[in-house]
Amino acid sequence: MAKDKGTVKVVEPVTLDTPIQRGDTEITQVYVKKPNSGSLRGTSLTDLMGMDVVGLIKVLPRITNPALTEVEVQNMDPADLVQLGSELVGFLLPKSALPGYQED
Q1: pLDDT tens digits for 53-67?
Q2: pLDDT of 75-94, one tens digit each?
């Protein structure tokens, strides 16, 4: 989850329970960046908030680093999909809905 450190957002990687094998490379951690509206095209915000699998398969390749492919997301361990989807949902919530939020 992104943490606000003053004016700098620090994004922590998601450690996958089941690493993704890509050729000779094993992906064990994935960063999820805050999506812009264009990254969400072709999906419904309500579907994403409900962590709809089809919506996640569409959006996660656009906002992950390393950039996961749709096939990699489709074949992902469901526990890892939930972890990445939770990161995405956290970005969609207003600040006031986040734990620990205090209005200035």
Answers
A1: 999 999 999 999 999
A2: 999 999 999 999 999 899 88
Rounded distance, CA 47 to CA 12, Å? 24
User: Closest Cα partner for 13 from 93, 75, 83, 62?
Assistant: 83
What is the H or E stretch that residue 88 is in? helix 78-92
Query: Which residue reads 């600040």 in tokens?
Result: 95
CA distances from 18 to 21, 77, 90, 96 (A): 9, 6, 22, 33
Structure tokens at 92: 């969609």
For residue 10, which amino acid is it?
A: V
Query: SS3 string of 40-87?
Result: HCCCCHHHHHCCCHHHHHHHHHHHEECCCCHHHHHCCCHHHHHHHHHH
- Pair of tokens at residue 84: 């990445």
Tokens matching residue 9:
């957002």
Cis upstream peptide for 66 (omega within 30°) = yes
